[in-house]
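Task: complex structure prediction.
Instruction: return C-alpha cells for all chains below.
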Amino acid sequence: MSAPLLQVEALNQRFGRIEACRDIDFVMHPGEVIGIVGESGSGKTTLLKCLAGRQVPTSGRVLYDMRVKGPTDLYALSEPERRLLMRTDLGYVTQNPRDALRMGISAGGNVGERLMVNGARHYGAIRDTASDWLERVELDPGRIDDRPATYSGGMQQRLQIAKTLVVNPRLVFMDEPTGGLDVSVQARLLDLLRGLVRELGLSAVIVTHDLAVARLLADRLMVMRRGEVVEQGLTDQVLDDPHHPYTQLLVSSVLQP
Amino acid sequence: MYVAVKGGEAAISNAHGLMADERRGDRALPEIGVDQIAEQLGHAVDRVMTEGSLYDRELAALAIKQAQGDTVEAVFLLRAYRTTLPRLGASEPIDTAAMNVERRISATYKDLPGGQVLGPTYDYTHRLLDFDLLDTEREVPEPYESGEEQQPMARVADILGHEGLLEEAQHGEAGAPVADITREPMRFPAGRDARLQALARGDEGFLLALGYSTQRGYGGTHPFAGEVRMGTVAVEMVPEELGFAIEIGEIAVTECDMVNQFGGDAERPPQFTRGYGLSFGRAERKAMAMALVDRALRSQELGEEAVFPAQDQEFVLYHADNVEASGFVQHLKLPHYVDFQSELELVRRLRREHAQAREEAMHKEAAE
Amino acid sequence: MSAAPARERPGDPAYNFAYLDEQTKRMIRRGLLKAVAIPGYQVPFASREMPLPYGWGTGGIQVTASIIGPEDRLKVIDQGADDTTNAVSIRRFFHRVTEVETTEETADATVIQTRHRIPERDLTENQILVYQVPIPEPLRQLEPREAECRKIHAWQEYGVMHVGLYEDIARWGHIARTYDYPVMVGGRYLMAPSPIPKFDNPKMTKMAALQLFGAGREKRLYAIPPHTDVKSLDFEDHPFEVQKWDETCGLCGAEDSFLDEVILDDAGGHMYVCSDSDFCRHRRDAGHRGAMAGHEAVRVLTEQVS
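Output:
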C-alpha cells in the first residue's frame, strides 16, 4: 500500500469555550474518497478547513505528503509555501459557488485564473484548457465569455468545480458541494462528480449532511458529533450496520428508498 | 474659434491677481482684520486649528482670511505651514480632569459632582435669524458671572470607572513613543494612537456622517454621551535638560467621552466601553463624531463583527483627511490629455471593429 | 507666531533650501535608497504636507526637493510639455525655494520631474527622472485593501493581473489598456508606471537614467535603478504593443513620437502635434516641417511653445 496522502494527528480546534473539533486522528491514502457526515454544527466544516490549510488548528498536526519534501505539517510551512501548495496540489469547493467565483469576470477568466496564477502566459492555451474543462463539467463552451452571474446555481457550481480541477489537484476538499441546489440538479451534479472522481482517480474529502451523497461518493465515512468523530469505517459498513447510537439515529432518520 | 489648451506663466499670474481682487471685494468696505476673524469667527478658527493640527489662532485666522472663508482650503494652508516647523518634542498628556471648565454636560447622570455647566452653547437656542445682528453699532451686554471660584471637576469616565462598569482607559506606557502620522506613514492594522490622531485631523463632515451612520444601524454601538467638556488646560513639557515638567502654555479643548454598551465575552464581563474624541477650541460636533467613530473602529479589538463602513479602518482612515481628498478630487482639473488621447485612440479602434463586425453580420444575414 | 528663519542660502529666505527641512530630506533619501535597493518595491514614507494640493504632484515634488542641489538644472513637464500650467507652477515653486537654474532643454537637465510622460529623447546616466504618481498600487483596482495588496506583492501572486488582460482579449480581441500599464520590474515586483501612456513603457527598460517615483497622498516611494529590466505584462500569443498613429506631427512631421490631438475649430477640425514640446522644437530648429506648417494654428502653437 502506498504512503498516506494525509495524516491527521490529535487535531483540536477551539473557539473560546466551544470545542469545534476534539482529538481528531485519521489517515487517508491516495485515491481515497472520505466522507464526513453529521448534523450542522457538528464541526464538519471547521475540520475541513483545518485539513485544507485554511484554518490554523488550536493544536495537532495535519501532515500532507508533499511531492518533494514528503509528509509535512501544513501549518509548519511558511505562508508562501502553504499558499503555493494550496493553489497547486489542493482544491477546495465551497457550498456557495459565489464565494469562490469572481462574479464580474467571464467563465473562461474564472477557470483560467488558476492557470494564470500558476504561471500560464499563453492566452490561446489558457482559453483552450478552460473551454475543455467547461465541456468536462457539462457546460456549454459557447458561453465561455459569459459572466457567472448569468448562470443558474447548478451551472455556477459546475463552473466552480472546473475552476478547482483545472490545475489537476491531488487532493480536493468539498463542503456540501450539492447543498443549496434543487433535487434534480443535485442528482445530475452528483453523477458528474462521481464520474470525475473515477476518471481522474481523485483523492477527496467531502463534507455533507446528506447520507445519500456520502453513499454515492465516499469510500469511507467519518461520523461527527459535537466536534468528535464517533464512528468511522467503510461507507457501506457504517451505513448498513451503524454501531454508535448517534449514527443509528442519523441512518434511521433518512427515508429508505 | 481656436482656444489655446496650454497656458503659461502669464495666465497663472493673472489668475492670482483676479483671486486677490475677488478676496478684497468692494474697496468701499473696510478690509477684514485677522483679529476680527479670530475674535468673531471663533468656531471657524477652532475647526481650522483642529483639522490643521496646529494650535495658533492668529495663523488659523490668517488662513481663513486668505482662503476667503473656505475652511478646507484654510486647513490646507495651515498644514502646509505646519510641515515646515521644527518638531521639538512631545508634550505630556494633557490632564482634562484639571480643566478650567467653561462647559460640561453629561447625558448619563442628572446630577454629578460639579454639576451640569451649560456654558456658551447654541443648544436650546431657537434657530431664528437674529436681525439685530445687522446693526453693528448695538451694545452687547456683559454675560452673567456667578463669581464663585471654579473647582476642578472629576471626569464622568473616572466616576463610572470606580465601579468597574466602564472599561479602563488604555494608558500608553509613560514615556513610550506615540504614533505621529505626520512623521510616519500609517500602517494597518493601525494602533489606537494613530487612529485617534487621524480622526482628530479628519474632516468634520466625513466623521459626522460616519458617526451618524453608526446611530442608524450601520454598526450600532448604543452610545451615551457620558461627558462633553470644554475649557482650557495647561500644556506641559519635559525639556531634556531639566528632567521635570514645566508649563509651556494653555490651550482650549473640547473633549467627549462616549459610553457604549458591550455584552462581554468568555474573558470579559459585560461592561461599558469607550469612544474618545478631542478637538481644539470649541468643536463639540467634531469631538462627538470622533468619539463615535473611534468606538466603531474598536470593533475588531472587542471581538465584534466589523462589516460596516465606520468599522473599517482602511476605509475610514484613508478617506478622512480632507486635504488629501480635496487635492485628489480636484486634480481631475489637471490636464489628462495624454491619457485621454490614448483612450480616444482605443475607443476609435473599438468602434471601427464594432462597425466592421456589425456589417459582416448584416452581410451574412442578407446572404442567408 | 514665530518669525521665519533667515538663512544664507539661495531661495526664499522664509523657507529652507528646497522647502523641506534637512531631516525630512534625509528621511526621504533613506526611503529612496531602499527603493533603489529593491527595484519596484513600494517603500512607505512619511509624506509631508506640501503647499501644493495632493494629486498635483506632492510626491514628485518631495522627491525632487530631497535630491536637488544648488548646482542642478531642473526641467518640469506635464503631459510632455514644459508650458502646461501645473508644470509652470511646480517650476516656479522650485525656483522660489532653491533658485536653481531651470531649463526646457531635456538634454541640459540633471533632474526632470514629470507627470504622465517620458521625454522622447534618450536620457543619460547623469540624469534623474522623477515621476509624479497618483496611485502607486498596480493592484488597487482589483484589491482596494492595502493589507491584502502587500501580501500579494510579498507572495508574488500576480496571476490575478493577467485575468484582467485575459478579459480584455476575450472581449475585444486585444488588450484594451492604454496608460498606467502595469510592468514587472527586475522580474520581481509588479509596478504601476504612473499614468504615462503605454507608448512610453518601452523607454523604461534598461534606461540609463535613474527613475524615481513619488506618491505623496499615498505615502509611497519606489524606484527603477539604471539599466534595469522592465517588462510590460502580456501573453506569449498577445505580445505587448504600443499605440501607433496614421498621422504625423503637424508641426515637425515626426512619425515616431507620441501625438496630442489639437482641436482647431468649432467644426471639430483637428491636427496632431508632438506631446513632447522640447523634442518638437528641436526637430523644427533642425529644419523638419510638418504638413500643417504655415497654418494659422501652427503660428499660435509655436509661439506659445517657444
